[in-house]
Amino acid sequence: MKAIQGGFIMMICLMFTGAHAASSPDPAQIKRGEYLSRAGDCAACHTAPGGKPFAGGLKMLTPLGAIYTTNITPDVATGIGSYSEDDFSRALRQGIARDGHHVYPAMPYPSFSKITDADMADLYTFFHYQVAAVSQKNRDSDIPFPLSVRFPLAVWDSLFTVQQIGYSDPQKTADWNRGAYLVQGLGHCGSCHTPRGLGYQEKALDQTSQDYLSGGTVDGWHAPNLRADATTGLGQWNEAEISQFLKLGHTDRATAFGSMAEVIHNSTQYLSDTDRQAIAVYLKSLPADGNYRAQVNDNATTIALEAEDSTVPGARVYLDNCLDCHLSSGQGERGRYPQLAQNPVVVSDDPSSLINLVLNGSPAPATQFDTKAAKMPGFSAGLDDREIADVVTFIRHGWGNQAGAVSAAQVKAMRKLTTTSGQSGQ
Asked: What is the pTM of this model?
């Protein structure tokens, strides 16, 4: 009898153990999902400054008004705890929440539609079993009625989204295909680096159009051209430099700033060397977009600055505020501060980033490889709109740079925009 009771108890224990094992997630799958969440930079949008991870609440500006990112922790009442894997996939790939409402396309679901089924399963497992649940209600947008009505988003989706899971080109190398998947899909690089159309849609979602990754402006930052243009793009960069930039946030040519500094901090520094190399391979395959302007460095600006010649508007401001870091040569202190001569950000047709940087400054990304990040100071308090316009124009015309002048009105508009968005004084 005791033997029978013991066997029965053992059977019950094995049943519960088996049930528990069946419901326990695979640690390797969680680890893969965490890596993919880094590649997708989920934390950048779904974690507000000072907030809990993935609990949402980050304010994002749109042409119609501000929206606030959602809680994607596994809290059942306020997050995605009640989402099935199908619900989760539908939200990421199609922009449709579990209750059927369409999310705003600030969520990059046109890019996430490319996420493979295997990667989607890993992401779902990570968010449901590893992320801490946070009870935090989602905040309504500031978009006024009737513009806040969401049903027109279904029309937007039908016009501007394409469902294409796991893009692959058999004519390309494995590196190219992996890079294309990361850039077009999880990395959603086009969300910032591709210009937007009248419907606020990305003008292209892949390399079949020259608009793709040709540069775009969001929230006062101009994300530069990532194509092969020699002056305004990556034409003079090699694959190793691109990979280093994604890992460290800087090269001798450039330093990440603004929203790209957040991408380095939250995402690309955690990618494997092979994935960063794949991204570099893909980006270097993109031809120039046709707006090439030959620009040759010259010494005239350097000679004038070394002589402390301040007759050109903006020169005195440069001498007093910029010279120590960026030098009279415009080459910057090597390894710490970027060059200004023939820098794609400086000579871009859109001067938004340069104006924003001089006004508000920006920290470089702190990474696991370099915790002592440099910071570009802002001069909004010490310089008026005319002085900032003059020094930005001086930089855009100096050392052989060929870019348009900047007006005080442009600086005034940027000052207003960044004050409204909370960027000023960062």
From this structure: 0.89
**CATH label, 300-421, candidates 1.10.760.10, 3.30.70.3270, 3.90.228.20, 1.20.1440.20:** 1.10.760.10
Do 327 and 339 contact (CB within 8 A), yes or no? no
Confidence of residue 9 (pLDDT cuts 50, 70, 90): very low
Other beta carbons within 10 angstroms of residue 2's beta carbon come to 6
* H or E stretch at 59: strand 59-62
Coil/strand/helix, residue 318: helix
Nearest to 419 by CA among 85, 176, 31, 411: 411
Amino acid at 415: R
Burial of 335 (0-12, 13-18, 19+ CB in 10 A): exposed
Record the tokens describing residue 80, joined without a space: 């995605």
Report the distance separating Cα 330 and Cα 351, nearest Å.
Answer: 17
Average pLDDT of the residues of the chain: 90
CA distance 159 to 251: 39
Domain extents in the chain: 26-132+158-166, 300-421
- If you average pLDDT over residues 334-340, what whole number do you get? 85
